[in-house]
Fold each of these.
Amino acid sequence: MYEVIDEFITYLQVERGLAENTISAYSRDLVRFVTYLETRNITPLKTSRNVIRDYLGSLTQNLSKRSQARNVSAIKTFFRFLVSEGRLKENPARLLETPRIQQKLPDVLSLDEVEQLLSQPDITTPLGQRDRAMLELLYATGLRVSELVHLRLLDVNLEAGFVKTLGKGSKERMVPFGEMALQALKTYLSDGRPALLKRGHPPYLFLNFRGKVLSRQGFWKIIRNHGTMAGIKKRIKPHGLRHSFASHLLEAGADLRSVQVMLGHADITTTQIYTHVTRKRLKELHETCHPRP
């Protein structure tokens, strides 16, 4: 059965083009599921809807709703694959219900907090020039942190003011950036990055102090430190500037579809969470500023 899982993983990679993180999570979920079936002397080809429901019920004590939902998705996708390959005639997971996940509003920085954060790096140093360029570009484009740290030199078009990135599912998109990010990038590329280079010619845009590609964890430490230095009380997470990018665009009148394209969301319902943030902000402004709140 594990050979079948390997075939399924290849299917997810080649035909579905899912992100590596999703594929890894699905693989772990399915190994856990098959291990559970083995304890009951059942194979996936002989299982039933009730057995699958019993298994999913066993996850409720140890996994979050989001992880439970992902397990349901992995199992449903796996059994659809088995049916499509002719290994099963009927799909026992077809009618499984996905646990409802409470929609959590993202933490969004105010415009003043963004300014405070972006002004923290010391741009008289190579690392400060790098940090300023990263923060400016992240806020200007709304890239995911993983997309930011994997940018290559060839992905940035300074003349046109666009950055090219590969998002989830290896889907390519072009995102514009403005003058502030452009100037920060030019300073970093002319002064900061050459000073960080040790040897060789790494293709990546942002380098650590060793001249290697910067990791996601490295960026998380950078943004957290600058947030602390700026005196921002909110807990700044890696996606904080991405959330702020989307929320501030919508508050300024950008249409939802355009924001969806720039964020690289496959489904516009994912982008709609930011409209809730915007409505919450408008409500606060109304209560604060209206003469009859």
Note: The two ends are 64 Å apart (CA to CA).
Amino acid sequence: MMEVIIGFLMIFFISLLSLAGIFMISLKEQTLDRILFILIAFATGTILATALFDLIPEAIHHLEELISEGFAINENFVFFYIILGFVIFFIINRFIYWFHGHAHEHDNKMVCYENVMEGKNKPVQEKQIKSFALLNLFGDGMHNFLDGVVIMVAFMNGIPLGIIITLAVAFHELPQEIGDFGILVYGGFTKKRALLFNFLSAIIAIFGGLFAFLVSNVNELFNLFILAFSGGGFLYLASAELLPELLEQKNLKKSIIQAIIFIAGIVIIISLILILPHE
């Protein structure tokens, strides 16, 4: 029961990252760029390592246990769920991108946020809410629900696994939430409403955690499915969504810094896996 309580607390902590916009809005664009520069590189390393060294091995371990208990499950079963997670995350990402999602094209360069400070000295005027902002909220709600499921299942399989998954999710969510805040403001929301609705979208993760808790008590195969599914989703996030952002960097010095931060993210996750005993 303690694992479940900690799981819900960590999900709520992840939801609070949606309020990051309140701290970022006063920063200069160059400062924000440097913060995102570090976070995205580190998030890529942590998410990739979490998928390959934690989520997928844990799913395979569950599969082996189920087979040893007499369940007639093919060994390729887990890999089907991994590729399913990869494909579903691809579809969700395409859905968000098609409707003006997380990344925006600005001056022929992909960036993670819009200049929400544009026109800050002009009188405030009522704006019509653009459809892409509402669709972005819907897409984020789906994504956050899945985050809640992943974190809860991880904690129900042991606190060490939960800590590692929460860390990986946090470093991915922070730059994403900054981008989401910019999207809502750009789409017609006031800054206060953007913070509120971004938080409401993020809090959906708690319902994901509750769903995982209820379903896992009914079907133990659900844990295997979510671990493998999340492993595939994390592989997609790292390889197809985050890594291309790093490859856009042409400056040699910054590329070296990114590589070091990327490797540091991998090393930290592997170190946590070795230090924290898994149940």
Note: The beta strands are 104-106, 109-111.
Amino acid sequence: MEVTEKAKDLVQSAADVFAALRAFDPALPGLTVIEVAGRAELDRGTALLLIHTLVSLGYLRPVPGTRRFRLGLKCLELGFLTLASQDLQAHAAPLLREHVPAIADTASLGTLDGPDVVCLVRVNAGRGPGRHSVDRHPSRRIWAYGAALGQVQLAFLPEARQVAIFESAERAKLSEPTPADLDPLLDRLRRVRAQGYAVSDGENAYGLRTVAAPVLDVSGTPIAGVSFTIDAGRMALDEFVALARPEILHVAQQLTRAVRLSASAISVGRSPRWGRAWTGT
């Protein structure tokens, strides 16, 4: 097993235990000692000792009548019950906080509710976003079609559902670049879905730039979106997108993976209906 970062700080035997457990997956629920050794990049003797230890502790179980082993139900105790009991907001907040203010002035988690996107988590830099204000309170709303945080979720819905949402409420140009007509909006969402993220440059709030990515459930349906926003005076749009895009995609991928591994036990809690009052993209 290759260890390259801070190797002197690692307990190799502990790393080997988790490598052995990660060798099992839904496609290969039962493995032999040799298969565990190969998939975990361990020598056969180490794999054998680890398997016997994990069997004695209840984390692995032998498959009767074979030389194979499978994960035991006790593996569910390894954080699953605690982590799955928390909602998506609790998991998103620390991930977003890691990127403020290094990358973003503001980082957000939001979810669609009809034609609106509702802000659920908002992390702000202590110095604020610069010349242009962002409402810092969660549970506020904005029209989804005009915000990157909304567009990136709309883009992963079936087109018929997109049309129904767009036609369920008025659509006004929030700023000159904001798309409001149906055909340009649908074209925009096709591009967003193809690239996997959305970018807004003053479309919803003048002077703010945003990059957003979707959080998807096991069926590929969006349950939320995450975004990074900066004041336009901080850096050029191309520079911001190049800096923020890989990071926001990574945050979204971590949350998507958590939702899927928890079989959607990790989800967005329902929010009360608040007035459409927050400014952000």
Note: The chain has two domains: 7-78, 84-261.
Amino acid sequence: MMMKHSFLRNRWVGFVAARYISRDKKNSPSSVFSVLGIATGVLALIVIIAVMNGFQLGFIESILEISSGHLRADNYPEGKAAAELTNRIRALPQVVSAVPFRETSVLIRGRVSALRGALLRGLPPDALDADPGLAGRLQMESGSFDLTAQNSIVLGTELARSLAVRPGDTVTVLAISGGGLFPDDEDGSISYTVTGVFDCGFYEYDLGWAFINIDRAAKISSPEEKPVLMIKLKDRWQDRQAMKAVNDCLAGFQKDLASGALSVPDASVSSITVTSWRDYNRSFFSALRTEKLMMFILVGLIFVVVGLNIYQSQRRSVLERREEIGMLRALGASDISVRLVFVLDGFFIGIIGAVLGLALGLLVAFNISAFFTLLENIVNFFISIINVVADYLGIGEAGNFSIFSPAVFYIKEIPSRVIPHEVILIFLFGFLSALAAAWFASGRVSRTRPAEVLRYE
């Protein structure tokens, strides 16, 4: 009953606030500019963070799906022990796939005489079947991912282009071991046949990676280079729990070996170390996180500028209405009720601007390629007009404009990833900046004394 009475008593607050807002729209454009400022800030942050997420998550997923996995077990055993242990790890509920690999640095020569450095990774012939994540990232540009033959090799698209080779051609591989070079000539040949060329969209891998059969990789690796098991999880954010499950699996395997339940010769898992993707990519991921945070702060300065504009606008409004405030106070209105009249102005500015920016931001973020194409067409239209004038005056013409030119950027399309909790945070940031500015600006209401204001009225 008390709450209902309080509500009825303060209904005038919304009425007076609406009158003030409608009058401000007629007499001053500051409210419109404030709404547009909030909308612009929300729109810019959503689009910029979405594009940044697209690039960063593309790099991160390429690293995790192709290179390292979510967990990796170093110093992995070989032979029957490795097969038995891998099957146990694959059976864990958190695990999607587990694939062993070997890698070593090599020099490769193709049709051109120059040698190219590359990282040579040995995989089982069924690697793509066992690891759907890897298969989804390696798009075969030509040929197939065939590592069945001992002398087969699959090259990155940029590496194949630099070597001037294609599927069916042969390349010469010189392995680097112990600081020296030696040919892989155990079968009387140092040549490998290119069976496929892959494109993963990550320039470093496309230029510097090649795959061969894991058994062949064991022959050209130094004895100190042990196999590694690459483990993919259903949820990479649950890596700590998965690490514990894998370590428990290793402990159980070692216990079965000690008790004689497993008769696997020359098997030991005591030297295996399991690490998470957070640990072995810590510096790279920290750099990406810092870059994203700094971009968020820099673009978020828009809200600071808009907030100051709202603060000055509301402060001026309070000063202009001192007589009206004094009248309301004399009629019995409390400090907080009168203050809410001006806070509601900031509330409506914030909510309208944030909603408008949210709608436009999501529209652009989900259609980013079409948006940039439209922007490029508009700029190129004006460039074409300038070229007509330049041609008439005998001046050199300007070339076409492209925001992400394939000649400069190694991308086929502009990526965009919208993360819901980031969008909510940006929306609240824009809305609350207007609300906070209005709250602080209305602080002068509490210092208004009805007797002083109305003395000469």
Note: Confidence is low (pLDDT under 50) at residues 1-8.
